[in-house]
Amino acid sequence: MDTDRRSRSLALSLACLVLPPVVQQAGRWEEARRKTLAAMQEVMGDLPADVHTRPLDVRVTGSVETDAFVRQTITFAPAHGDIRIPAYLYLPRDWHKGDRRRPAMLALHPTSPLGKGVVDGQGGRKNRAYARELAARGYVVLAPDDPSFGDYEYDFGDHRYVSGTMKGIVDHMRGVDVLCSLPEVDPERIGVIGHSLGGHNAMFVAGFDPRIRVIVTSCGWTRFHDYKGGKLAGWASPRYMPLIRERFGLDPDRVPFEFDDLVAALAPRAFFSSSPDHDDNFAVAGVRRAAESARRAFRALGVPENLVVVHPDCGHDFPPAVRERAYRFVDMALGHRRPELISSSVFLATEPGVRTNARAFYTHPVGFEMMSVHSRQTRSDTADVAYRRISPDNGRTWGPATEVRTHEKRPGGVLRRYLSTVFVDPRTGAFVQMILQGVLPGDDPLAGMRHWTLRYALSKDGGRSFWHEEPVVHVGKEFSPEHPLPGLWTGKNSMMIGASTCVPIQLESGDILQPVQIAPLGSDGVYHNPGGGYTYHDCAVLIGKFNERGTIDWRVSERIEADPKRSTRGVIEPTIVAASDHRVLMVMRGSNDRRPSLPGYRWFSVSRDGARTWTKPQPWTYRSGKRFYSPSSCSQLLRHSNGRIYWLGNICPHNPRGNHPRHPLLIGEVDEVSLRLVERSLTVIDRRVAGDLERLQLSNFFAYEDRRAHEIVVHCTPIGRPHPKSKERKDKRGLDWTGDALVYRVRVPLR
After folding, report:
1. Measured by CB atoms within 10 angstroms of the end CB, which terminus of the chain is less buried, N or C?
2. Nearest Cα to 55, choosing from 238, 167, 178?
């Protein structure tokens, strides 16, 4: 009977479900998984019941030290017989007794007389050194010899095992026992990786050992029906599964399991397969068919993101870029190398009743000179006074503060002028200061909805002085300071940079992208608030390019418009980042202000043409597709030099009410394929503690990468936290505005 029609196939069993609740799916999955493992044992021989009975008796016979790890040569006792299993054991040098336990990886080697030496980088095959690379990444790694390879002398005539495959499975399960016995290892965070021979051995041992939480296979499998055109002699040697010949006549239709079944049986655990387009051993067509079938199981169990299959443009190889992607997949699956808060301290002390906001940034494309901008604030959305300082030494010391005027009286009201975001051109060194400015009648922040405009100033000396300043005006004779953009008229509606987290970026084309928010016009030609919230905005991106005069020509993208029935304030405070495939991700603040029954989400949109056009905004989710709640507050995307994208912002466990709760403040990694947030990567930067008000605000922050330490530095001023200088008088919402400007340091992996 054709494998694709076998009723015991796990993938097809789950495909036929009408998606009942996940718990019911899990029951069906477990039944199908048991059938798959039973079918595998018909081919490989029975898994012995006493795999874990015998003492491991680990013996160290040699040791080599590197800067990052110690590589021990060890042997340990097999489940049966007298021939001990040789292995390399890699232990991190920076682990000390009492430290948090580390994740561990079982690294299985490909076919080579060197055995474990290959995955250590011996023999000149650099694309096979994944044991050494994972050890350098901070993992505990065990790399055993497979029977008859390396230092492992083994006779496949040993009748305790029907197949060499089952012998390998048992040995590798013993290897997991070794890892679980180590004080350095967290037994809940163990994975396996292998290429070619090691690739399918990784899948086989994971099928039988549920302690393995993540599986990486490279060039290790295809459907039996697609292997060499269905000619299975290569699978039937004593080293593998001789019953494929002896009992099943080399006929893939008679073999009682297929790789579809095995991959599905690994669900809901994380499975990554690199199956190259030009692998002449394991046909990619069979991988594609099997993965599509098995994917139904992962979807049914609610973890579609846990199945990743990539097809690099190469032959039977494990290229560096694919290995790096696999390692990041493992990092995520095992919660390794998550951001880690290492310190928090006072950056600038405050005065009673004053919120001191601060941020710092670099002033040149290279080097360690920095500028800090800080302001004193006694009411929402208004800075009373601002200052600038210069540091020559990466923020270790700061020069005197120079006042920057933020307001002055004008005939039509009060001129408010705020230093906003900064961009430093890596090609020319030009320092671009964005400025938010407007004459506000009655000095009312809400009057800015009709009067805010943007300007930019250019500096050649890192922002100490400016040789040019002018309004941001779209190219074209029809545009002017009074009509700076399509659909924008000063005095009728406005554009603004809503938060310091709306950081500009530059594309490879040289285009400068500055995310902005624009107040929409109604049918009467003035600002219109269709959502009924406190304010209402659309988002857009200013696209700037330096011209031959050294100034900037500005254009604007299409607008990103929310549905006012889903977000009462539209979308505001956009933050953007460029993905490695040239897509641009925008994440925005929404709101359920005045309609708390609406779900409070973060919103996102994607551009595929350099930020000119955008997808319709949708609720931003975790990589799994699971939605999360987020208050109406700013957030920031940040591309780190380690190649990863991070997001910082507020996530709450229940539906927010408008702006609150603005705690905790979190950092997490963005998956660069789905452009979604990776839930298990989230780390708390600050949270509400005893004494803090429920309306604690851990928002209005700013983050950057420290060029020397490569830590992520976060500036934030908590409001609603008791302070020794707190005043008795509070604002109408019960908040005391006394708050120091704090600085947090977050360690992230350097590769």
Report:
1. N
2. 178
Mean of the pLDDT values across residues 507-532?
Answer: 96
489-501 pLDDT, tens digit each: 999 999 999 999 9
Q: How far is CA 437 from the centre of its chain?
A: 36
Task: Provide the 3-class DSSP secondary structure of residue 654.
Answer: coil
Q: In angstroms, rounded to a whole number, what is the distance separating the alpha carbons of residues 516 and 454?
A: 10
Residue 18, class by beta-carbon neighbours within 10 Å (0-12 exposed, 13-18 middle, 19+ buried)? exposed
Give 672's strand partners.
none
Length of the chain equals 751
**Dist CA 289 CA 224 (whole Å):** 12
| pTM, 2 dp | 0.76
Whole-number Å distance between alpha carbons of 576 and 670: 12
Residue 265 burial (CB count, 10 A)? 27
What kind and span of H or E run contains 344? strand 340-348
Lowest mean per-residue pLDDT among 211-215, 378-382, 521-525, 736-740: 378-382
Mean confidence (pLDDT) of the chain: 92
Going by their DSSP bridges, the two strands 102-108 and 140-144 should be labelled as parallel
488 touches 569 (CB < 8 A): no
Residue in the block written with tokens 């029907």:
162
Q: How far apart are CA 433 and CA 435, in angstroms?
A: 6
424-444 tens-digit pLDDT: 999 999 999 999 999 999 999
ω into 661 cis (within 30 of 0): yes
Q: Give the integer Cα–Cα distance in Å for 307 and 272.
A: 6
> Which residues face 578 on adjacent strands?
584
Structural contact between residues 386 and 402, judged by C-beta atoms closer than 8 angstroms? no
> What are the extents of the domains in the chain?
3-334, 340-747
On whether the CB atoms of residues 605 and 616 are closer than 8 A, the answer is yes
Distance set, CA 36 to CA 49, 104, 204 (Å): 18, 27, 12
Give every CB contact of residue 345 below 8 A, 6+ residues apart in sequence. 742, 743
Closest CA to 674 of 329, 161, 250: 329
748: tokens are 């992230």
CA dist 194 → 154, 243, 272, 290, 411 (Å): 21, 24, 11, 19, 74
Q: Does domain 340-747 have CATH number 2.120.10.10?
A: yes
pLDDT for 727 equals 64
The residue assigned the tokens 């466990």 is 653
pLDDT > 50? residue 18? no
Q: Is 340-747 the same fold as 3-334?
A: no
Which amino acid, 99? D
CATH number of 3-334: 3.40.50.1820
